[in-house]
Design goal:
The protein has about 200 residues and is α+β, with helices and mostly antiparallel strands. The protein has four helices and ten strands, in the order ααβββββαββββαβ. A seven-stranded antiparallel beta sheet has the order 3-4-5-9-8-7-6, sandwiched between helices. It has a three-stranded antiparallel beta sheet with strand order 1-2-10. Strand 7 and strand 8 form a beta hairpin. The radius of gyration is 21 Å and the shape is globular.
């Protein structure tokens, strides 16, 4: 019996080692895919350093909220459900790409985000996205990143108990797919993560 147990344990160890190796290799491949690459465009390859974030007040469902927004962004009209929206506005004169950070009350026109929320509510996971992270507690349910037509949606869904996916509120970073895997994307995501990390519902 001892020999059989040793054999089973040895086989189990080998299987686990192979699994870990595969997981490590997959992680390296994903890292490589996400590494910034040169696009031959100075605005994408060499954006300026992010300016410090400043506090911005907004109102979400009757509650005062605070957002920290990099001064690289200026106030913008936003989308139908935006209660606060900010457009990337670097010093580069010829920059004309639509890159925004917004706080949205309800899903509005972002059907693809509603689909993600519906999947999450049913299965506690999401398929067909580039990134997905679930939060066990705190003010967010999950965050995800995905391609949507010619743009990328990178968003945090605020925790709530709505049954209709379209009722959920979310923070959104929205930018053209041409920005993917560039140093500019890295800068935009860094600014957005700071906004999400410091988002506060005051009352």
């Amino acid at each position: 019996m001892g020999i059989l147990d040793d054999f089973i344990k040895g086989a189990s160890d080998i299987v686990n080692e192979v699994k870990n190796t595969i997981k490590e290799e997959q992680g390296k491949i994903k890292e490589k895919q996400n590494e910034p690459v040169s696009k031959g465009d100075d605005m994408l390859d060499h954006p300026s350093e992010a300016l410090p974030a400043i506090p911005i007040s907004a109102n979400l469902r009757g509650h005062n909220v605070n957002l920290m927004i990099s001064q690289d962004f200026i106030k913008d009209a936003g989308y139908a459900t935006s209660v606060a929206s900010f457009k990337y506005n670097p010093n580069e004169i010829n920059f004309n790409m639509d890159c925004t950070i917004s706080l949205n009350e309800g899903i509005g026109e972002f059907d693809e985000i509603a689909d993600c929320i519906e999947q999450y509510l049913s299965n506690k996971t999401i398929s067909g996205v580039d990134e997905f992270t679930e939060f066990a507690d705190g003010q967010y349910l999950f965050k995800a990143k995905m391609d949507s037509s010619d743009y990328v949606d990178y968003f945090y869904v605020l925790r709530n108990n709505f049954t209709d996916p379209y009722d959920y509120d979310f923070l959104l970073l929205f930018y053209p797919r041409d920005v993917k895997n560039t140093m500019l994307e890295k800068k935009l995501i860094s600014c957005f993560e700071e906004t999400a990390r410091n988002f506060t519902i005051l009352d």
